[in-house]
Amino acid sequence: MAKKIRNIILILLLVGGMIWTFYFLYQKSQQPPVVYNTVKPFDTTIVKKTVATGSVIPRREVNMKSQVSGIIEKLYIVAGQQIKQGDVIAKIKIIPNMLNLANAENRINTAQLNYDNAKVEYDRNKLLHDQNVISKSEFQVFELKIKATTEELSAAQNQLQIIKEGASKTSGSSSNTFVKSTITGMVLDVPVKEGGQVIESNTFNEGTTIASVANMSEMIFEGKLDESEVGKVQAGMEIVLTIGAIDKERFKAKLEYIAPKGITENGAIQFLIRASINKDNSAFLRAGYSANADIILAKKDNVLAIPESVLQFDNEKPFVEVETTNQQFKKQNIQTGLSDGINIEILDGIKKTDKIKQPQLLVEGDKSKS
Predict the structure, then answer these.
(1) Among 59, 63, 100, 369, which residue has the fewest nearby CB atoms (within 10 Å)?
(2) How do residues 57-80 score in pLDDT, each as one tens digit?
(3) Is residue 193 domain-shared with residue 119, that is, in the same domain?
(4) Does 122 share its domain with 105?
(5) What is the pTM of this model?
(6) Is residue 26 part of a domain?
């Protein structure tokens, strides 16, 4: 009897195990029902823009150069210092050219000999004139000669002094050895040091830059725009600047220049643009800050919009799928407007209360996201 009961129990366990196995395999083979996420249209501001990269620079930056060649004897400024127009920024010590120096000294010697000879003749004939031995007209010849030789000697002496010191006796404090600022502003850079050599600026040589000075109160954005975008912009458009070194602030600007000719960079045609920055905050803009310029092509406030990702097309005509009942959708043609690449304006076809199908698929239990 006990053996019979044991066999029955084993059979029941075996049958139960088989039933459970079939049920488990059946449940595993069943796929969860498909649930589509939905979104509703919303009111927003849509801004269509294009982006240019560049940097912030002063509108007016001037390189200060010397009018004479020589050695920097003294520097009076440092980078970051505010200076005014006419302030002395450096003093140059002249290192004369030996050939020019020799020629100038020879000229003085010659002029001195001519002057000495003219002086002897002048003194002798003045005595004769005072004694009425010679006439006034005869004496005037010697007067003119002494004046001419005096001027020649003075010119030769001035030339020698210019060669030696960079200035003549008659120039006084306006010596070319003192380099003065031509504008009021901030010293951005001093690329030379005391004791360094400088070359004068002239028609054939740009000369050595002693300092660069700029008016930091008037800054501009200078950047480049791709040829595919340049046809969309025009002078006067609003710009929003994002400066890498100042993350928390945005700066307004206005486009004022678009280059008529492009340049080739890395195989692409780029056009130079400039924009005046409306600096209405306290942030200090340093010259050379990198910046991105969002050029606003079009803007619409408080418009009905949907994510552009839910938009579908049938023969280039836009439509969306609107939910009618629980997870049942119908095709709805729509009319679209301005797009910023993420959201798109809806002009007609759907209401703010409609639920629109998204392409993402969610499993049962994720309905809370709809």
Answers:
(1) 369
(2) 999 999 999 888 888 999 999 999
(3) yes
(4) yes
(5) 0.62
(6) no
pLDDT digits (tens, 9 = 90+) for 154-202: 888 887 777 666 666 665 544 568 899 999 999 999 999 999 988 887 7
- pLDDT over 90 (residue 8): no
Asked if 96 and 163 count as a contact pair (C-beta separation under 8 A), the reply is yes
Amino acid sitting at position 328:
Q
Whats the size of the chain, residue-wise?
A: 370
- Tell me which residue range forms the domain holding 171: 64-214
Pairwise CA distance, residues 369 & 38, whole Å: 8
Most confident of 164-173, 264-273, 361-370: 264-273
Tokens of 114: 């001519």
Structure tokens at 87: 């302030």
Number of independent structural domains in the chain = 3
CB atoms within 10 A of CB 322: 19
